[in-house]
Design a protein that fits this description.
Multidrug-efflux Transporter Regulator, Chain: A, Domain 2
Amino acid sequence: MPLTIGQLAKRSGIGIETVRFYERKGLVEEPPRTDSGYRQYPEDVVARIRFIRRAKELGFKLKEISELLSLRVDPDTKCADVKKQTELKIADVEEKIRVLQGIMTALKKLAASCVGTGPTSECPILEALDGQEQD
């Protein structure tokens, strides 16, 4: 039995606007419509949207998710192709972690430079952010 956009959104755990957004991005095919213009989604779209949600939770961007979905239906795709995409995402996440660790180290250094008293005009954190770093 076909689903309305509201039913699809509810069963998929997303909002109606997100369903429309996924349609515009080509992640979900635009469904047939009733004579009165209501979208009628097949049941399998729920699983597709759940796949998209899980992939997003793992940090995949919409373009990458689209590639994964394409790999899924391509008869020439091997599991190794999907693994390669996942390994690329792992490398991307590792780089983000490295950058975030650098930011955290810099922030800790800034926080340690401030005793937390005095006027903001003499705040070493604000001075450092202004580019007037003091050793």
